[in-house]
Amino acid sequence: MTTTSTFGLELPAAAIAGVGSRPFGVYVHVPFCATRCGYCDFNTYTAGELGTSASPASWLEGLRRELDLAAETLGSAPAADTVFVGGGTPSLLGAAGLADVLDAVRGAFGLAADAEVTTESNPESTSQEFFAGIRDVGYTRLSLGMQSAAQHVLAVLDRTHTPGRAVAAVGEAKAAGFDHVNLDLIYGTPGERPEDLDASLDAVLSAGVDHVSAYALIVEDGTALARKVRRGELPMPDDDVFAQRYERIDAVLSAAGLEWYEVSNWAANDAARCRHNLGYWDGGDWWGAGPGAHSHVGGVRWWNVKHPARYADSLATGTLPVGGVEQLTPDESHMERVMLTTRLRSGLPLDVLDADERRAAEVVVADGLLTQVDDTFVLTDRGRLLADGVIRSILR
Fold this sequence. Notes:
Blueprint: E1 2-4, E2 10-12, H1 13-17, E3 24-30, H2 47-50, H3 56-74, E4 80-87, H4 94-108, E5 111-121, H5 128-136, E6 141-147, H6 151-157, H7 165-175, E7 180-187, H8 194-207, E8 211-216, H9 224-230, H10 239-255, E9 259-262, E10 265-267, H11 275-281, E11 285-289, E12 294-297, E13 300-304, H12 308-316, E14 322-327, H13 330-342, E15 348-349, H14 355-366, E16 370-373, E17 376-379, H15 381-385, H16 387-395
Parallel strand pairs: 3-4, 3-11, 4-5, 5-6, 6-7, 7-8
Antiparallel strand pairs: 1-2, 8-10, 9-10, 12-13, 13-14, 15-17, 16-17
Helix pairs in contact: 3-4, 3-12, 4-5, 7-8, 8-10, 13-16, 14-16
């Protein structure tokens, strides 16, 4: 049995009935960037690429309409437990623009009393006044893009901020009252030396953040970085270097009291963990609003059209800007649960696995890549380096 929204989205009645029994988050995608980083393949646009076809004003109007339609589509949707404003570069909206975004979420869904509200920011488009402004309107958490403390590494990534700006921004954010601040690192960039990574880690620790995300550089098709690698101007990142860099990151952060809770994420304590992302990893529900944003409710996924002009045009007619929908089968849902929970320090529950998968996991334990902790399988230090392979071995 299904229920068909008059707004262009069909959801099973069972999926909607379960809303509220699982964590519920709202993701807002801001598609605007001042410049395009060479490694990035996210759904983002510079002003020159958009021309007059779309603007922050038309995007915000569309966002308000989408969130209102979302609340009507879900019916008795609960107040949002978490909100995450990502991009793109949300800080380009300024404090007033981000206040408008949060007002739109509040107006459509409301916020839980202890809601976690995060925005990503580029350090170069922030200031003491910016941080104070968004803290005052209800943002509780920040994620700042640092990537590296080495200027030549930032140059390879086409990042425009100066190396010391991220640390200075953290200080400004703390002065504005933010207790929870994340810094993003990218490791394995061509030309990055061990001492460059150490300098980045020293900067992170000197900033005193309570959360760090660190990701291996991926050369995505269609990016400027991929074209440089294809032309031989830059070498392809090396898997052995990735492993060495990861081990160094984990050792330094762990010694400083930040423990891994997901393969690419470290936090000082439970309160510092990103609850919004845990909602993704733990199979919660979320509505993704904005061009190209993805959503999930009760085993149904859908995604919005990518271009901001098409996004706004669809909503101007009262229709959700859905670009595609998929209903996960039981096998797909099972596979996804194994893939996501294996990456968590809390581990993969044994009772999730069938007999063949449990036997396969026990082989991985014997290989030293998993360990059994009570009724869960947890990645070992070496297993984290080979997490994708571990998952494939269990699901084969």
